[in-house]
């Protein structure tokens, strides 16, 4: 009897222990999209310990009931409850979201005042799917609906917009996968007024209101440029703006207040066949309670005595061979044209549409679009030359060069230009940092670094995109930029101070570098330096070269350019309607390598042999006395010297600047001299040896006597990379982390200064 009772007790205790234990459950297997995170939960009643593992390997430190998972794997939770171990696992798989493109906007143009129309949304599908035919596209009216697959647009082939403009959201998903992507595009109806060149100008009178953003869009019926002339009218000075936008809907021809608010007499001309007049007013004083209404006329360029050939190069997104609204003009090339086979090749450049005027209907033109060498692998031109083009007097035609992009070339360019004045002791001056995306795709993010010369003081950044992050450094600042759109340019205006202690004649060098260059196509435009001489007075109409008056001969290669800035300012008593710059290139410059890089205003430049002529027609440049900032302008171009330049060669540059019909203002003559390497004050009492050169890991600097030495290493832009101060016969510099390239070693002791070029492999 006792034995039987013992067995019963053991069985009872066993069932009791099992009844108090809990089995862990971390859930089912999970599939999730990249960029998201999932929390696995192994919470178990009465648990005393947890331990997580991934793919059989214990995850150190993960001993809580939950685990945040961001990558694929088999995750197992081991739990101890009442001394009993239990485990469960879950397979987590991260899948990639489909690669899609943001489509271009859908635009309907009309001459009526309609605000709604029927759009076919499905025409955007080829742009979105990026060649992936497995994707299913559905359209929604809000981002939340697209995310959650709620209320898809039932008939996307005939959708009537609800607002103007309206944003449409497209959800792209492979039906066999759970991951998706959402992109968006705008539907917009644009109303324009037709301008018939054979009829009288169209007169518009408008009295703007508070918070007004009304636009007036005009388009010529013949393709000719459109001229806007203000007969009378006023805007509130410093508050309400008159804005004139060119044919591309991007370039701003004018933004301002006229002469103390009076816009009477302002004249603007489009580069293409369209121009927009816009009002931007605040919430207080307006035309309705204070000012003379705006009255302006829209007319076509008088083509009664000339024929107009508009040359246009553009990215042919849909490969149909014709220019469509919204397609981007590609400025990375020159327009070459020859008249009547006369053997004279004219080279034209513009940032928009290049215009050739013909004074005889019998003239014929052979026209070529010549891509800049650095972009020949990024774009394809099916027909780069079109021969025997002619246009009748009084007519205007377009000659189009459609480009396709066989590969996505990423190219960020940085430029540093002084558009105000050179450094002067006791005064501030500005540097303009231009960040350009020379690509057909958006660059999601990147970093640029600005380094100021140690003689100058970085005061502040006057203007910058509010979405960018600025971090001050000991030598200047860095900028983290985001979402730089195709062919976009961002301007960063920097204010610098030249202290009163700086001597006249000192040379300062500021540098900007694009540091995130992993996928960049043209490495040569990732750095820009600006070298300037400290002066006591300044003529605002001048020419300078960014490297300064002296260039070390052995550091300047056949791939390098000279970068020239020609600045101009209207110092007269009235606005300058037209500005023209003329320069004859020095015989040591290779005119065939001339390229425009940037300008302050819309321009056309033509090169005939060694003669350059820039035209700023209808620039309406204010006089300094009315608008000091707006009275300035510049052109910035690059060019190579001819082969064979030698130490001691001097290349002069001088230009003539014409304001309307006045006598030319002749700039200074800026001389660029090629000089020997910078070995200064070398003293024979100390011998210096550097090895190995080229160096890979350690660079040794040895001396024949002990002397306190300050050794510094600079890159080719003058930025200090390394520095060591030692009292020893041998100094070791660790260069293993440096990028391959040319550097300069500068040594200073009590008795000598020494400079030597170093190559790092």
From TrEMBL:
Annotated ranges, domain Secretion system C-terminal sorting: 691-760
Superkingdom field: Bacteria
Cross-referenced InterPro entries: DUF7619 (IPR055353), Secre_tail (IPR026444), Sperma_CUB_dom_sf (IPR035914)
Domain DUF7619: 539-672
Pfam families hit by this protein: DUF7619, Por_Secre_tail
UniProt keyword list: Signal
Signal peptide from the UniProt entry: 1-19
Statement: the UniProt record of this protein carries the keyword DNA-binding: no
Identification of the protein by name: T9SS type A sorting domain-containing protein
Protein source organism: Kordia aestuariivivens
């Amino acid at each position: 009897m006792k034995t039987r009772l013992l067995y019963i007790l053991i069985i009872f205790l066993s069932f009791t222990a099992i009844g108090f234990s809990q089995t862990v459950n971390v859930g089912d297997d999970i599939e999730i999209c990249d960029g998201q995170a999932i929390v696995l939960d192994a919470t178990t009643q009465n648990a005393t310990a947890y331990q997580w593992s991934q793919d059989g390997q214990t995850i150190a430190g993960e001993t809580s009931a939950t685990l945040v998972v961001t990558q694929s794997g088999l995750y197992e939770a081991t739990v101890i409850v009442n001394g009993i171990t239990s485990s469960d696992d879950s397979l987590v798989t991260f899948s990639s979201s489909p690669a899609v493109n943001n489509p271009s906007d859908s635009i309907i143009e009309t001459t009526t005042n309609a605000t709604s129309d029927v759009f076919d949304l499905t025409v955007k599908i080829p742009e979105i799917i990026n060649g992936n035919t497995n994707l299913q596209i559905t359209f929604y009216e809000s981002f939340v609906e697209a995310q959650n697959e709620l209320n898809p647009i039932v008939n996307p082939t005939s959708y009537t917009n609800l607002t103007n403009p309206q944003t449409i959201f497209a959800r792209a998903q492979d039906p066999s996968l759970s991951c998706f992507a959402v992109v968006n595009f705008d539907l917009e109806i644009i109303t324009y007024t037709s301008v018939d060149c054979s009829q009288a100008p169209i007169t518009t009178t408008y009295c703007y209101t508070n918070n007004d953003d009304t636009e007036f869009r005009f388009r010529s019926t013949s393709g000719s440029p459109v001229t806007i002339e203000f007969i009378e009218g006023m805007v509130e000075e410093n508050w309400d703006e008159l804005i004139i936008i060119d044919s591309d809907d991007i370039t701003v021809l004018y933004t301002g207040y006229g002469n103390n608010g009076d816009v009477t007499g302002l004249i603007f001309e489009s580069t293409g066949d369209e121009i927009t007049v816009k009002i931007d007013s605040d919430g207080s004083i307006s035309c309705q309670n204070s000012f003379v209404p705006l009255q302006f006329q829209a007319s076509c360029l008088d083509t009664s005595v000339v024929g107009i050939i508009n040359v246009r190069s553009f990215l042919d997104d849909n490969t149909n061979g014709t220019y469509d609204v919204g397609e981007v003009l590609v400025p990375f090339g020159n327009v070459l044209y020859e008249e009547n086979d006369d053997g004279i090749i004219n080279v034209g450049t513009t940032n928009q549409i290049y215009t050739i005027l013909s004074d005889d209907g019998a003239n014929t033109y052979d026209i070529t679009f010549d891509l800049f060498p650095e972009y020949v692998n990024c774009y394809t031109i099916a027909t780069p030359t079109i021969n025997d083009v002619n246009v009748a007097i009084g007519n205007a035609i377009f000659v189009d060069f459609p480009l396709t992009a066989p590969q996505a070339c990423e190219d960020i360019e940085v430029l540093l230009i002084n558009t105000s004045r050179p450094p002067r002791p006791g005064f501030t001056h500005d540097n303009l940092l231009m960040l350009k995306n020379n690509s057909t795709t958006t660059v999601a993010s990147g970093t640029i670094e600005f380094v100021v010369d140690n003689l100058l003081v970085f005061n502040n950044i006057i203007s910058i995109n509010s979405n960018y992050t600025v971090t001050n450094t000991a030598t200047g600042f860095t900028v983290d930029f985001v979402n730089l759109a195709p062919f976009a340019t961002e301007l960063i205006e920097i204010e610098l101070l030249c202290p009163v202690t700086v001597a006249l004649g000192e040379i300062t060098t500021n540098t900007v570098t694009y540091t995130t260059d992993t996928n960049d196509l043209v490495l040569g435009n990732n750095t820009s330096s600006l070298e300037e001489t400290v002066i006591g007075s300044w003529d605002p109409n001048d020419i300078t070269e960014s490297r300064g008056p002296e260039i070390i001969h052995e550091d300047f290669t056949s791939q390098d350019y000279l970068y020239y800035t020609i600045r101009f300012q209207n110092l007269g008593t009235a606005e300058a309607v037209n500005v023209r710059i003329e320069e004859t290139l020095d015989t040591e410059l290779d005119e065939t390598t001339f390229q425009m890089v940037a300008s302050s205003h819309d321009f056309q430049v033509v090169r005939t042999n060694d003669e350059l002529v820039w035209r700023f027609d209808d620039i309406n440049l204010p006089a300094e006395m009315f608008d000091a900032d707006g009275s300035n302008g510049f052109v910035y171009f690059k060019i190579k010297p001819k082969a064979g330049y030698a130490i001691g060669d001097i290349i002069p540059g001088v230009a003539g600047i014409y304001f309307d019909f006045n006598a030319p203002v002749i700039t200074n003559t800026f001389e660029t001299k090629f000089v020997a390497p910078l070995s200064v004050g070398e003293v024979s009492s100390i011998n210096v040896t550097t090895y190995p050169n080229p160096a890979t890991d350690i660079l040794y600097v040895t001396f024949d006597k002990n002397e306190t030495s300050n050794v510094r290493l600079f890159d080719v832009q003058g930025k200090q990379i390394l520095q060591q101060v030692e009292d020893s016969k041998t100094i070791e510099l660790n260069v293993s982390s440096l990028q391959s390239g040319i550097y300069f070693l500068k040594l200073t002791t009590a008795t000598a200064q020494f400079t030597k070029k170093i190559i790092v492999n």
